[in-house]
């Protein structure tokens, strides 16, 4: 695995974390227990902080980044990802805040100062422009994103199951690496 210190700040890893050897994790990045980071993910906590909650997974080719602190924006925009979140392949998350039990579809882009509440599906290829708030319990799709419809009970249940599936998969990888 590739973990880099940046200006004396080293990423912090919880228990049973899997980081593929082809991923890059740099700087102020905190990964909670059972997080999985898959090939070609770049997570750069160089100008602000990235936190990823327990049992969340970030799939192949995703870019995670932040917005720096400035006089006009003293806190900047850190990247916060909650628990039991599935980030699909080739996504771009930049300075946004995701709650718990969210699925971000492949190729989605979520921009600065977006807040995604708990229990949300974001469809593949969706663009979420800056400063939006996505309400809990809905499917969002499109470019730019639109609130499509309420989630069905089976879809809400799948959000947690998706995270469980990736915890099991990363456990298999951890066993084969030892």
TrEMBL record:
Pfam family, one: Hexapep_2
UniProt keyword Transferase, yes or no: yes
Keyword set, alphabetical order: Acyltransferase, Repeat, Transferase
Protein's UniProt name: Gamma carbonic anhydrase family protein
């Amino acid at each position: 695995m590739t973990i880099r210190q940046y200006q004396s700040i080293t990423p912090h890893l919880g228990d049973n974390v899997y980081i593929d050897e082809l991923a890059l994790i740099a700087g102020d990045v905190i990964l909670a227990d059972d997080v999985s980071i898959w090939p070609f993910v770049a997570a750069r906590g160089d100008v602000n902080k990235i936190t990823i909650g327990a049992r969340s997974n970030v799939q192949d080719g995703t870019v995670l980044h932040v917005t720096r602190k400035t006089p006009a924006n003293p806190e900047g925009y850190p990247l916060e990802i909650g628990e039991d979140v599935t980030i699909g392949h080739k996504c771009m998350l930049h300075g946004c805040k995701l709650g718990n039990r969210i699925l971000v579809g492949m190729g989605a882009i979520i921009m600065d100062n977006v807040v995604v509440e708990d229990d949300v599906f974001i469809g593949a290829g969706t663009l979420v422009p800056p400063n939006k708030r996505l309400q809990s319990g809905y499917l969002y799709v499109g470019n730019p994103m639109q609130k499509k419809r309420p989630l069905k009970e089976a879809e809400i249940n799948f959000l947690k199951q998706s995270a469980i599936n990736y915890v099991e998969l990363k456990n298999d990888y951890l066993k084969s690496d030892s």
